[in-house]
Known about the structure:
Two copies of one chain form a homodimer.
Chain A: H1 3-12, E1 16-20, H2 29-39, E2 45-49, E3 55-56, E4 59-60, E5 73-76, H3 83-92, E6 97-100, H4 110-125, E7 129-131, E8 137-140, E9 145-148, E10 160-167, H5 170-183, E11 187-192, H6 201-210, E12 216-221, H7 227-239, E13 244-248, H8 253-263, H9 270-279, E14 283-285, H10 288-301, E15 308-313, H11 316-328, E16 332-333, H12 338-347, E17 357-358, H13 367-379, E18 386-391, H14 397-410, E19 415-419, H15 426-434, E20 439-440, H16 443-461, H17 473-481, E21 486-488, H18 490-499, E22 509-510, H19 513-523, E23 527-532, E24 545-549, H20 552-569, E25 577-582, E26 588-597, E27 601-608, H21 612-616, E28 619-623, H22 628-637, H23 641-645, H24 655-672, E29 676-686, E30 693-695, E31 698-702
Parallel strand pairs in A: 1-2, 1-5, 5-6, 6-7, 10-11, 10-12, 12-13, 13-14, 15-16, 15-17, 15-18, 18-19, 19-20
Antiparallel strand pairs in A: 3-4, 8-9, 8-11, 21-31, 22-25, 23-24, 23-25, 26-27, 26-29, 27-28, 29-30, 29-31
Amino acid sequence: MNSAVSTLRAILNPRSVAVIGASGDPAKFGGRVMHFLVKHGYRGRIVPVHPTAAEVLSIPAIPKLATGDPVDVCILALPAALLPAALEDCGRAGARGAVVITADFAETGAAGAARQDALVQIARSHDMRLIGPNCLGYINPHLQLALTSSVALAVEPMPRGAIGLASQSGSLMASLISHAQDLGAGFSVAATVGNQADVELCDLVEYFIEDDNTRAICLYIEGLNDGARFLALAQRARAAGKPILAVKAGRSAAGQQVTQSHTASLAGSYAVWEAACRDHGVCLLDDPEALIYCADFLIRFGAPTASSVAVMSPSGGTVAVTGDRVVAAGLTLAEPGAATVAELRKLLPPGRTINPLDVGGLPRTSGLDSALTAYELLAKDPAVGAILIAVATTPQLEDKVRQWGSAALAGSKPTALLLTPGTLVDGARNALKKIACPYTNRLDDTLRVLRAAVEYGEALRNPPPPASPSSFIAALCAHAAALPDGRLTEPETKTLLRTCGIHTTDDVLAATPDAAIEQAQRIGYPVVLKGVCRDLVHKSDAGAVKLNIADASALQIAWQDIARGLSAHLPGATLAGCVVQPMIRGGTELIVGCRWDPQFGAVVIMGCGGVLVEILNDVQMAIAPISAAHAKRLIERLRIAPVLAGARGRPPADINALADAISKLSTMAAALGPRLTELDINPLLVHESGNGVIALDARATLAASTP
Amino acid sequence: MNSAVSTLRAILNPRSVAVIGASGDPAKFGGRVMHFLVKHGYRGRIVPVHPTAAEVLSIPAIPKLATGDPVDVCILALPAALLPAALEDCGRAGARGAVVITADFAETGAAGAARQDALVQIARSHDMRLIGPNCLGYINPHLQLALTSSVALAVEPMPRGAIGLASQSGSLMASLISHAQDLGAGFSVAATVGNQADVELCDLVEYFIEDDNTRAICLYIEGLNDGARFLALAQRARAAGKPILAVKAGRSAAGQQVTQSHTASLAGSYAVWEAACRDHGVCLLDDPEALIYCADFLIRFGAPTASSVAVMSPSGGTVAVTGDRVVAAGLTLAEPGAATVAELRKLLPPGRTINPLDVGGLPRTSGLDSALTAYELLAKDPAVGAILIAVATTPQLEDKVRQWGSAALAGSKPTALLLTPGTLVDGARNALKKIACPYTNRLDDTLRVLRAAVEYGEALRNPPPPASPSSFIAALCAHAAALPDGRLTEPETKTLLRTCGIHTTDDVLAATPDAAIEQAQRIGYPVVLKGVCRDLVHKSDAGAVKLNIADASALQIAWQDIARGLSAHLPGATLAGCVVQPMIRGGTELIVGCRWDPQFGAVVIMGCGGVLVEILNDVQMAIAPISAAHAKRLIERLRIAPVLAGARGRPPADINALADAISKLSTMAAALGPRLTELDINPLLVHESGNGVIALDARATLAASTP
């Protein structure tokens, strides 16, 4: 355990806590903290700090923390102006950590950010960790410790369990505590980190990975301070068998603006997030409360070992609707084996489907047993990865639910119980809670649970193939060092590509029309003529791309057109010359590129090109570098994958060469790091299988070299 | 009110009911029915029918219904074998209706279907309506009448309200009753129709339209007996201001199989359903329980008069996530006007976004008022169609929620309150229930409510432009009458199209290569040569389409190729000849067609053509006939609409001509009815704006003329 983790461990498992701004009034932050500390029975030492009171809630208070008898953690609920001095006191007294609830820091702008930095400096000067500001503290139910002002703690008991929660929102933590209570699930620690001025989400993830009480990690994220660290931790969590489930705010432009004003978080690109999470086995959910459902399910059942699901219900209507929704959610209905089907047929009236399975109105003679037998038959079938039981009103409901739940917990098949009616079936809910069997109340959540579990199982079984070392990196870096900062021209970009072994047209800059004509004669007409000008971003918009030039006189005219177009488009810009390229037809046009992402570093992107780009938004990405085998997975996930594979009698495209080019570009992106701001090959023409790929056009931007 | 409706009215509002198979044992169907009748306090006459008992639950029983003193409705929960005789008794005694709970009829196969038909015959012979079989009866809370064996009725009181529910599933009715109870919503009548042997969903829709107690209509549908009747009723419901909300099972193949085995329902094409519902203002939902949420919301608030929504919450994290989800759900975030923004800014800390709006931690001096003021500012802004308040834990939660709810009910802006935490905030839920303000517990449902309300509002404001009469119908019908049954050839199909004024290539069948060469010379090379053979479905697969033929000798070779290809592909088939067409380049290829749908009749379909068909599944459809203005709406909904409109500097396509062709084809489909099984124009080439469209290829199948 490294020292940062052991410090956090001391803070989250304190022997003593001080409440700076303690009060007996539950309408105040410091009052609620005191009340919850006492109410939930924290057995460590509680030190209320109050300028005048002799005691708070019958606990002796002190006006100021003393040195020599340090508390492990202080919680501060004070007006912002009083914070620096109070934090100094905590530090001088030797506290390991300070939790700052007060808001109005970086989230309100530059002045707040400066105040926040000042707090961090104070904490660092005393070797003290700072949680917050703009947070709601944390709970450690295993210690009966509620170090928070959240009104969620008004309800007893604190839900103790194996979920480690780290949230940038205090209010969402409260909602999740409430849902855990309702379900009979619970937390090892649930903590809020607010603006992440010092202690950040990744610190908690690392703590949870090493914490024996934690079996699943839930995160509500507005922004990450260090994406690479997060991914490294995700790998460790996977190795430790602890699933990470995350909700990330800022998928929309509106959401991104809110993360800034809420916790001063830069949301980053959600698409990059999605790609990173998928490749690193992090279950990305769209709904905070569903974190609890999914984590609880994975803790109790583990990940499914097959990806198809079986659906059963005692209601025919529910069976039909649930089957529809399972398919619409992108899950696959399992096909049970012949033996399972034969056994089920013995129980069922004629005409019934096997999956989804209507177990309503089974012959009375088999009574309750048949509903249980049906479950057990599905559960022991290896083709079934998980089972969804949609519980609707039916006679003997509670008994059936108890039997299904017990069988699910005793067996090895992950089973999601859904109770669709309202409070009418609370008896069945309580029966499940009593045996600690997870359930959901809405099909939306059941589907989230099953999808997360299936995806996590797949991620465990199929981690992305690692990228292997490349031989071209030294030459590439030397070449890039010699290139100018800023926008590269098409020929410059293509030399960079060729350094990595990516095939491009063999462009040579022609300074005059005559030189271009000479080149065209060597290549053979028809040719393409393109103007080269460093300041020109979109060549087509300036009319600087002329296709299908048939002869020398047409080339002369084209050159003049390009020169005129450039002057009109970018007055004062200099035409450095033109490049002549062969007119290549056929093949499939893709876009392949890379970006430097401020959170995750180098990212490789690929998708379909041409007019389809805007309609399909058919794009896949991954954190670079990736292997060719990994690149193939991206290609397979494209919507145009069937076209590339040779749909409707078309010849298959050279997917091996495409994957190789993507992998090489990703290696380049990772090797050049922040120096390569972005690079786009558009189009990369993919020929028929065996005939390779060729970059027809490309552009790139280099950042100023780091000094 | 027509007589069918008045009969149903008598059955659903009976003065007297008989329970055939009455029992005092609540474990039996007839026992539960008796218990619920008594328990809920039905004040009409209850007549238990039992072969031997003198009384059931202290109510005098009779062994057999007597004539001369008819009950309005009988409910039968008997073994199938006893049903025919018992139903005869009901009919002879003069009952207006019989409710048959017993299952094992058409849903189990042909023998069951015959038994079911026999029941219907008995009912009809006595002029008695039959509800079921395989149903769970109904409730009429306005009469305190529970004529059902559903265990949902174990809970009191029956939820009385303005929702009319008709369900093919008894279990789903039970779940919906439970949810209505939890929300404080209720029913005018909730009825199950099971196999719809006689009384069907549309009968109930018609009843609800005319019923003063009903203000919104909810349907759970597995299959419709008469799609055209449903659409006519949808129009009446819209005129009556009563929204119809429906869940339709059978969206997936799996779901379709279940509807067959559950209620012997033919699910039909879900895509046609979606199109029909959208055009007729029916809100199609994917979740049964959400029917209650959406109906309750529309009853209390009516439809929004603008389509954009505002989001507010006292939790920053919830604001961010909710904003993301609203956008992901396809809803639009409203942009409040400058005056609203200026007023809001006075309340807010710096940096906050306006929509979604974080109303947490507003200055203490404004206390509760500021949270209410923020709501009222948004509510009075005309750019805001509806408001979503995501309630998270916050101090003074109940007071705030009560104020928001009261303001929502008192004002004119539809407002969806979402309470994300669990039982922790049940106090706030009860506060809303007490003032009869709708709310939801999960964002999924809130989004369903808002989407349904917004879509319903749009449907009210923008009904599809009606199709106007066409002049070509008489000529078309005469022409079609002269065509053979079965598959038409390409030239035959094109003559049909030209009859309606749809532009096609002007094909003349050439019987010999020489005749073809003569035509080609007239048209001008290059040309297209296509084999014509009635038995050939897919010309391309047989190599019967030769493009880009440059001269007479190439045409000779192409003809021989076509002849050889046909022999190889379809041994024994006769090549009737070939057609010669000009080689037309450019334009955008679409597919336009029509189908005869067994539930809804003639349907017109259009979508993008070529290789994109399989990748995009970019298809729109409508029940025929439709006007050109309506066809334009279909075109605008295509994903390739931006390409047709002229994206990225492309010339815009001739959308007017395309819409006109679609409208004409739809008119043809409606006019020819079931005679035209299907017709596909593939491709229909759409030229640049002003240059029209042309059908390059087409095929059709005619059903045997109805005698």
